[in-house]
């Protein structure tokens, strides 16, 4: 009987884990939709959106995002460019660093280039890019060197 009851427990555990993964994926999708809608809404996000809703979704992506969240990466970059809210901007950079796929790194690089040399955000973007490159073992060495060279010392 022990073998059978162990199999039942294992089966229940697998269902629970699968259910939890599906719930997380659903929540990521929901928060990504909110970010995409915010990014498309207005040249200045604060005018059209309650920033607590936007920052809540950004925070969720920072805490739970993964390299599969391509749409979230694009939305976070657009929000960074369209808000002056410092907390939202910081969370956008953190979300891009957390996602850390090719799209997110390209968005960080684009933001780095678009910020002026004297911008207070440029060092923060560079820091996250350096960390993203260092942590991603899938990047080709030539690509990693290219990013590092664009950032300078």
Number of helices: 8
> How many structural domains can be distinguished in the coordinates?
1
- Major sheet description: none
SS-based structural class?
A: mainly alpha
- Mean pLDDT across the residues is 88
The H-and-E topology, N to C, reads as HHHHHHHH
Q: Strand content of the residues, in percent? A: under 5%
Number of strands: 0
The helix content, as a percent range, equals over 70%
CATH topology: Leucine-rich Repeat Variant
What CATH architecture do you see? Alpha Horseshoe
Gyration radius, rounded: 19 Å
Distance between the ends: 65 Å
- Could you say which overall geometry the principal axes of the C-alpha atoms support? flat
Topology:
Layout lengths: L1 H40 L3 H4 L2 H14 L5 H12 L4 H14 L2 H13 L7 H14 L5 H11 L2
Helix pairs in contact: 1-3, 1-4, 3-5, 4-5, 4-6, 5-6, 5-7, 6-7, 7-8
Care to describe what's here?
Helix 1 packs parallel to helix 4, helix 3 packs parallel to helix 5 and helix 5 runs antiparallel to helix 6. This protein is an all-alpha fold and 153 residues long. The chain has eight helices and no strands. It is flat. The protein has a single domain, classed as Leucine-rich Repeat Variant (Alpha Horseshoe), CATH 1.25.10.
